[in-house]
User: Fold this.
Amino acid sequence: IPSLQDTEVSGYVNRTFDGVSDFEIFDHALANNLNVSIVGEAGTGKSMNLFRLEETLWTQFHRYHLVPLYIPLARVKPNSHFIEETLKQHSYTTPQIKRLKQEYRFIFLLDGFDEFLMQHRAQDLLTQAQIRDWNGLSLISARISAEDALTPMGMTDRRYLCPFSLEKIDAYLA
Assistant:
């Protein structure tokens, strides 16, 4: 799988924290076929990372052969099949969705797990979306307050985002 490290995204700064860059998080998930959660406080760039990854993967579809689908979880209605509903919002028909599901690999960019928990149970994320029925993996963003709810779902591979570098943290504490 090609590395996102080699990809330029307009208007996006690939940040590094604790020796790991934003794009290395995504490369790790893609290379290892992992579902990964991206955890951080408000304002650390979780949503922006997912949004930019979607943009990058669409522009680089010929390289990655992944269909990225950004889904803001705060908008998910109870008991909905939100993957199909999101695709329909992008003007895909039911036969086209069926074909996509059979022929392509997806990366679901699920944004705001903590907001999802305000209206749903954690396990509903997997059952409602029927993610296991799709050929793909998920990157789920969540605030640290929702971190414990990710473990029972098998989301044990986590990457933490922080708005400051270690150098800035050390300088502030000194």
